[in-house]
Amino acid sequence: MKTPRLSPQTLRVLERFVERPTAWRYGYELSRETGLKSGTLYPILMRLAKFSLLETKWVTTEDGVPPRHTYRLTPKGAALARATFATARSMLKARRPAFSGGRA
Amino acid sequence: MINAEFPRRVATLLLRFAIWIAPHDTHDWGRGMLSELHHVEGNWPALLWSLGGAGVLAKHAMLAVILPGSHRRTVSSASELFSKETPMRKTTLAAIAACVVASLLFFLAPVFRQAFQVSLAQWHDVFHISQRWLGHGPNPELEALAKKAEQNHDAEALAFVAVRAANQGNEPEAVRLADEAVHLDSNLTWVYAVVGTPCPTSAEIDRWAPALEQWDPQNAFPHLMVAEKIDCDEVEHGVSALKPREKSAAWQDAMAAAFQSPKLDTYFSRQRELDRRVLIRYRLRDPFQAISDGVSFGYGLPSYGIGDSDEYAKSLLESGQALEFHGDRKSAFEKYWTVARFGQMMGSATSEIFVQRYLQEAYQRLGGLSEAEGNHAEAAFYSSLKDRADQAVQRDLAALRANSRGSDLSHWSAFLVRFSGLVMLVCSGLLLICALGVFIRGKSLRLTALQPSSLSLAIGLFAAIGALLSSAVLYAGYRPYSEILQRFITKGDEAGLSELSNFLFATEVPLGAHGFLGVYDAVSRFWFVVTLLCAVALCFVLLIHFRLRRPATASA
Fold first, then answer.
1. Has this prediction a pTM greater than 0.80?
2. Has residue B130 got a pLDDT over 90?
3. By C-alpha distance, which of B220, B184, B179, B528 is closest to B346?
4. Quick check: B383 and B367 in contact, CB under 8 A?
5. How is B39-69 classified by DSSP, letter by letter?
6. Which residue of A has its CA nearest to B55?
7. In what order do the strands lie in the sheet with A25-26?
């Protein structure tokens, strides 16, 4: 399966999604939480959606306010994110002794 | 003061435009960004949000133009399957509009307007818009300036227009304006010399030369004017004498007075100063009007002036020789010295090249006389003067060659300006044809009803990009010359003026013509090609007409 390139910014976005995997998230909310500008965030979201790792939905919030576009990881996306973070954690654990002066 | 809501409104418009040009498969994302805009806190952060989002959509729009297959919309129905690819068309239309707007924005810069005007100069001879070289071409800008100057009683501006009218061969107007200018300000009497030079046959010379002589009694110029008028009258009556000895007494008197005059002033520097003052006062920026080059009329001298001086100097040298032969060395010395002094004067006012023959001979004879009298020091002095004159001739010849050829840079810039001007015209024509074609096909003026074909879009995009690129090249190619002109007008800095003059001279030659000698061939070729293309177009239209008619006739 082809997967998007997981840049540090993409990992930051995935991290936010993994925190609450079933919740639908707004673009502006994600931007504030990750500190990414719209010009960086949306290409990441678009790429994730292109690889079917992200699903989108329009939701109506309140009267007079236009519906908002919301995003959530697909089961495939959630699995990939979990696997990525698990790998990252294990790599971090393996490296730790080298940087902690032998106190594992 | 900017309205606080203004950035948010701009942000909304920007995102809407980005969505409009974006490929269809990114519309949801674009609308998502737009809906989030309502939740962004602060007006300036909203604008930043919109800029980021618009950038993303614009990138996708560009990709859709470059790689049309990369943004195919998923077809959901049969009708959609056969419908036109609107996102792609919108993107192309947006690109065309952006290029056209960017090209038009160039016209806001005065330098570009000037450059465009210069690029059109090559068409003057082709369409006879202004017969700069044949004369009698009305110039609306000069006419307007003359009217304004008359209303303001501005003598300098009247003199400015008079000089240009004379150079363009409009003698009656030149005479009228010059007289009016001198009437308002007698300090401008020198204008008679400048205006009279290109109009040697004018009856006014008989009136102007004495007036000029009275105003500037030490100058040889009015006497040269009189001599030239006599030459012209003789030529007109078919009694032109070849030898100076056979010339009329009036001519002899005029030339004798010229050779006795203590100075020779062509009033070129006065003219330059007046030009600058008028250009500043009336904010004139036409480079062709600003640079009125006296070089084209024999360095500002009457056109017969150089020939007349040459003939008269020769006759003086001959009579000096005769006097020397009869032993009258003192009188011979005076004759030779008169020639040498006038030659020095004429050489510094014009060019050493024109006085070379008689000046060097005069020095040689003066040296010979000194030698004969045993005055070796004086003979050596005349010999050194002769050598110096010879060096000056070589220097002037080199300068003249360089000046007449013009630098490679000025020729290259002139080519760029003419070529980019031509490309701009062609691209504008193509855009106009495409727009007309689309409106005629759509049979409506409503933008939504118009369905441009792929060919129209492709030609339109090509023409729009061509117009934008040629505008940029035209601006960049002309800018250095505009700066030279600006420096001359505002500061009187004459550095680079000859380069500008060469450049302007070259821009008047139509593309494809080799110098001014080839202008008329180029003009003939141009009209031949235009006629041929018209004939081909007519044949094409007739062919289509008969092909369309045949089935109708057959069914009838």
1. no
2. no
3. B220
4. yes
5. T-SSHHHHHHHHHHHHHHHHHHHHHHHHSGG
6. A39
7. A25-26, A68-73, A54-59
Phi, psi of B212 (to 5 degrees): -65, -40
Residue of chain B whose alpha carbon sits nearest to that of A26:
B36
Q: Please tell me the distance from the alpha carbon of residue B402 to that of residue B496, in angstroms, as a whole number.
A: 14
CA distance B27 to chain A (A): 11
How far is Cα B160 from Cα B150, in angstroms, rounded to an integer?
12
Per residue, the 3-state secondary structure of B197-209, as one string, reads CCCCCCCCHHHHH
Dihedral angle of Cα A83, A84, A89, A94, to the nearest 10 degrees? 100
* pLDDT tens-digit map of B164-195: 888 877 888 889 999 999 999 999 999 998 88
Which residue do the tokens 């003192």 mark? B330
Where do the domains of chain A lie? 8-95
Q: Which residue of B has its CA nearest to A69?
A: B32
- Taking any CB pair shorter than 8 Å as contact, residues of chain B touching chain A are 26, 28-29, 31-36, 38-40, 48-53, 55-56
More confident residue, B143 or B245: B143
CATH of span A8-95: 1.10.10.10
- Chain A positions with Cβ closer than 8 Å to B: 26-28, 31, 37-40, 42-43, 45-46, 56, 65-69
Structure confidence by residue, pLDDT tens digits, A53-70? 999 999 987 777 788 999
- How many angstroms from the chain centroid is the CA of residue B467? 22
Domain boundaries, chain B: 1-67, 92-129+406-511
Give the span between the Cα atoms of B516 and B494, in whole angstroms.
Answer: 26
Of B371, B358, B347, residue with least CA distance to B320: B358
